[in-house]
Amino acid sequence: MREKTSRSGGASPIGGGVSPDGSMSVDSVRRAEINVPGCDRLPGVEKAAIREATAEDAAGIARVHIASWRTAYRGIVPDAFLDGMSREESEARWRERLDERAPRVFFFVAEVSGSIVGFAVGGARRSESLTEFDGELYALYLLADARGMGIGRRLLRAVAEGLSSLGFRSMLACLMAGNRSACGFYEAFGGRLVGSDTFEISGETIEEVAYGWDDVRGLVEAPD
Fold it and tell me: Three-state SS for 169?
């Protein structure tokens, strides 16, 4: 899927994945998304607005990013690594990426009552081996208490729509194999398993899997 290298980054939760340093690397089961038993919902979460992200959203994105990693990857990624993640450093990196966004890269946030509860990033495929796909969902993250309300589905569709609008035909998403709920999310929306690899975080070997969609229009046109 990619060259095997030791890195301090990683792949993804719901949804998919950005590495913990803020660089882009992609995370419900059921069509209506994962339900988290006993999880309190954010007031008004069903009225979440999906919009393009700006540099001013860097702090909110960093907050969701770190909270999602600590929720989804506890027991998969070493605790010391998760506990050492810095919101200030993450915010600075996200602000830089949003200020200097690469061409044909999409950043979306899900917002409830002025607070960011999720985000997604996508663009051209980065994998050097899975060349049958031309687009990629780099990341899809939600706060735990914003799940099960269709927000992940809407973020996934926003990225698919962005890719389709620029002529991309297909899409890839990479994530940690241990995040079974995220795997189930992608499978529920038509993703098929197309590859696997390993990488390292703090000396720990992590398995990564890739899901693919041959036609992003299927995600764009899927009913709610």
Answer: coil
- How many structural domains comprise the chain? 1
β-pair type (49-52, 135-142): unpaired
Residue 137 domain flag: yes
Helices 87-99 & 58-72 angle (0-180, nearest 10): 130
CATH code at position 126: 3.40.630.30
User: What is the Cα–Cα distance from 10 to 29, expressed in whole angstroms?
Assistant: 22
Q: Using the structure block, give the residue that is written with the tokens 């899900």.
A: 110
> For residue 77, how many C-alpha atoms fall within 13 Å in the half-sphere facing its CB?
31
Q: Could you give the residue ranges of the DSSP H alpha helices within the chain?
A: 58-72, 79-83, 87-99, 151-165, 180-188, 217-221
3-class state of residue 109 by DSSP:
strand
Query: How do residues 12-67 score in pLDDT, each as one tens digit?
Result: 454 445 455 444 433 322 222 323 223 344 555 557 899 999 999 999 999 999 99
Tell me the residue range of the domain where 141 lies: 45-221
Chain Cα centroid distance, residue 175: 8
| Token pair 């985000």: residue | 119
d(CA 9, CA 139): 13
Lowest mean pLDDT: which of 17-31, 102-116, 126-140, 150-164? 17-31
83-112 tens-digit pLDDT? 999 999 999 999 999 999 888 999 999 999
- Cα separation, 23 vs 93, in Å, equals 8
